[in-house]
Amino acid sequence: MKQLNKLTILGLSELTLSMIFEIIHHSYAHPIDIQIIRNLPYTPNFPFTTANANYSIVLDEDVDYTKVQHCSLGVFGTNTKKLIFEHFQKNYGIDKTRYLNLIYPDAVLASTITMGTGIHINPNVVIAPQTHIGDFVSINRSVSIGHHTHIGDFCTFNPASNVAGKCRIGEGVTLGIGCNVIDGISIGENTVVGAGSLVTKNLPANVVAYGVPAKVVRTLKDGL
Predict the structure, then answer these.
(1) Would residue 150 show up in a list of annotated catalytic residues for this protein?
(2) How far apart are CA 21 and CA 50, in angstroms?
(3) Cβ burial 117-148 (10 Å sphere, 16+ → b, else e)
């Protein structure tokens, strides 16, 4: 992981900020200054505290973006990640090159995986060889991803979801808590798989599917 003294977090959700602070706590021994940028005034319901980080929350209009170097998205939902990234890219020129990958130290990552940028990987994650992970993918705790799997940008893996080998997970897919995807499955972009589901057949883009086995229950308009 890169040497880090200051991190700018774009967007704010208490779930994601809690995970980011936990990763930083276990990854860096030296103090980190964290600046959280939000486009509306906001005070968290509870403080984000750790021994090696101090944080402040500021409005986006009050920031000198020419001085922002290391960024992370502070939101977890797939569509929200896209909106926040596009907002700061369009209005302030924050492109993908300024984002860091934040990876919990106990994650087991094969040496042959490839990764984009802006990725969050949380505790007890296992990723097998020859897997590709796109940009701005959020992988929550206790997730397993099999070999030769391709994961598109902006995907969201909720806790204890499992993907077997040789799968293709399209851009913007959300996998619910504890769902399982068997070998060789393709899931189309923006599709949402419900918690506890078992995916045994390919799923198209822009649908909601759940059940054992998972079945399409409705379509999504504009990814929503």
Answers:
(1) yes
(2) 7
(3) bbbbbbbebebbeebebbbbbbbbbbbbbbbb
Q: Which of 164, 167, 175 lies closest to 214 in space, CA to CA?
A: 175
Report pLDDT for 59.
79
Of 25, 70, 147, 150, the catalytic one is: 150
Q: What is the pLDDT of residues 112-169, one digit of tens each?
A: 999 999 999 999 999 999 999 999 999 999 999 999 999 999 999 999 999 999 999 9
Instruction: Give the Cβ contact number of residue 58 at 10 Å.
Output: 13
pLDDT value, residue 148? 98
Query: Which distant-in-sequence residues (6+ apart) come within 8 Å of 188 by Cβ?
Result: 170, 173, 203, 204, 205, 206, 207
**Which residue in this structure is represented by tokens 């068997």?**
182
Distances (CA, A) of 157 to 3, 30, 163, 187: 27, 30, 10, 13
